[in-house]
Amino acid sequence: MKLIPHWIDGSSVPGGQSAPVFDPATGQEQARVALGGAPEVDAAVTAAARAFDTWSESSLTQRTQVMFAFRQLLAEHEEELARIISAEHGKTVDDARGEIVRGREVVEFACGLGDVLKGGFSDQVSRGVDVRDFRRPLGVVAGITPFNFPAMVPLWMHPIAIATGNTFILKPSERDPSAANFVAGLYREAGLPDGVFNVVHGGKDAVDALLDHPGVRAVSFVGSTPIAKYVHERATAAGKRVQALGGAKNHAVVLPDADLEFAANHITAGAYGSAGERCMAISVAVAVGDAADRLVEILERKANEVKVGPGNAAGTEMGPLVTEAARERVENAVGTAAAQGATVVVDGRGLKVDGYEGGFFTGPSLLDHVTAEMDAYQEELFGPVLAVVRVDTLDEAIALINANPYGNGTALFTDSGEAARRFERGVDVGMIGINVPVPVPMSYYSFGGWKDSLIGDSPIHGPEGVRFYTRPKVVTSRWPRPAQQVAAGFTFPTSS
Ligand code: NAD
After folding, report:
1. What is the pTM of this model?
2. Which of 88, 196, 233, 292 falls 20 to 30 Å from 68 in CA-CA distance?
């Protein structure tokens, strides 16, 4: 059985214990991944701390050149990496390409940090005195990432951390770990010195060791809300800087004036793409007024048309779920919704794909007449289940969204600029789409939700990412001529 090792200081490190990695399309174990703990984390921190001494003193030009080369290699190896992701995650190869492209955009942003890192300068704040500021890297920083975007989510972190002069330890999801090792190989080929990018695989033991290690200065986390809260609490208690992005329940509101065919098309893709395993997936369609009946009718047709199959087969639109446990959880949730009074318009439970009977497949499910009290509305199902909630007005839709504990993304389908503006300003949500179902910001903006979708206050990538991975120094300087004496005062310095 193939073993996926750690990557520490430029070398593969096998490690002792291991866990299975499945092929979600067949349900078969296809590899094992090393499970690290305190010793592996300590080895990675030691290597990264040593590498930091030289990497943090490298020139911006050198770091930018490595990023350019890395960006080129990511583009050249897109197909290979997409297949690696698809084989362990289950998503289609085209969808995996999409995440690589979106992750690569962060590398492109990191290629242009010269501009973002420019400091301020204030001339002659006092006579003969100038003030300027510049930002320095933090040291060894860690990223802990979820299974659903094994390339893109880590790419939200490490290019910016590394381009600003930090060294990085990635703890990817143990369910689809191979993308991290592949990326480590590309960095090495791009000329990144050993120890600047490291991968420690594992689960809770590896995470806890990173959160507690005094040599780790900052932690970036993306995953479910309970773990985001745990990571935030434990790492801040250990004195670290933390950004922790959590789960989501994203609403798409459809007004009666919207083009319903267009809205239903986009909501279907946003709900069932990647089998609903996206933090920006649409899981609730809020039908306003008399949009509801017609919208549900089109959604039903489109859900029934989704082509489900293995991620690497041509024509597949939706692959399997990542694990058998995920499939069971999602199918149970559909049953609970029916028991609680929702109408199951399309029932994806029990779907079998010919030749892949052991795979973790479930079909798209569409629930109507869902209310805010039902489990299917309250829980993040993280599967291909779309719940339709019916309301009478846009204000009611906004109130529904604001009462939800999550606030990652939301979308409005409408023809009205007035309604769109009211919506944008009214919702307590971090990322908003107007006739755009999955509004993932470009890399030069920041990504992050509100409320339980982001614990702490630091969104990820873009200028906020640069701020997160650096800290400022402010220099107040005076260069007096020898003859020009300035009296030293015992009172607190003020300018003159
Ligand atoms: P998860 O929270 O189970 O795992 C995330 C990471 O935490 C993994 O590396 C995992 O090994 C580690 N982990 C899991 N349990 C742990 C524990 N008890 N103690 C310490 N570490 C632990 O999330 P997942 O199932 O891999 O990913 C899906 C979740 O991620 C969904 O909730 C989704 O909404 C969220 N997500 C959010 C965003 C965002 O930007 N807000 C993006 C992608 C995914």
Report:
1. 0.97
2. 88
